[in-house]
Amino acid sequence: MQAIPHHGRDSRDGFVVFIPRPSLDDPVAPLPSGQSKLMTTEDLARLLKVDPSTVRRWRTAKPAQGPPFIKLSERVTMYNVDDVERWLLILQRHLASALGVAQA
What we know:
Layout: E1 3-9, E2 16-20, E3 38-40, H1 41-48, H2 52-60, E4 70-71, E5 77-80, H3 81-99
Antiparallel strand pairs: 1-2, 3-5, 4-5
């Protein structure tokens, strides 16, 4: 796994927390899913409460950060809702582990 910086600070020690970049190969219980839905960069940004430019920067970073994406054309990039939910669950687990927080 590759490490990615988490720019929040741990209030206990004041250091920036570095967590591994989640991989979709990490073991996670399958999410219940109906039809697979896609979301735009703007949809994802609204969901995460970040600017769309942040999502674009994650996508173009080397190595890529953020959830997996589907490049439909030069100008159209979409995100599968199931992939985004899985990425958020994995990220939450890695962050909790890095901060030493017990998980339910």
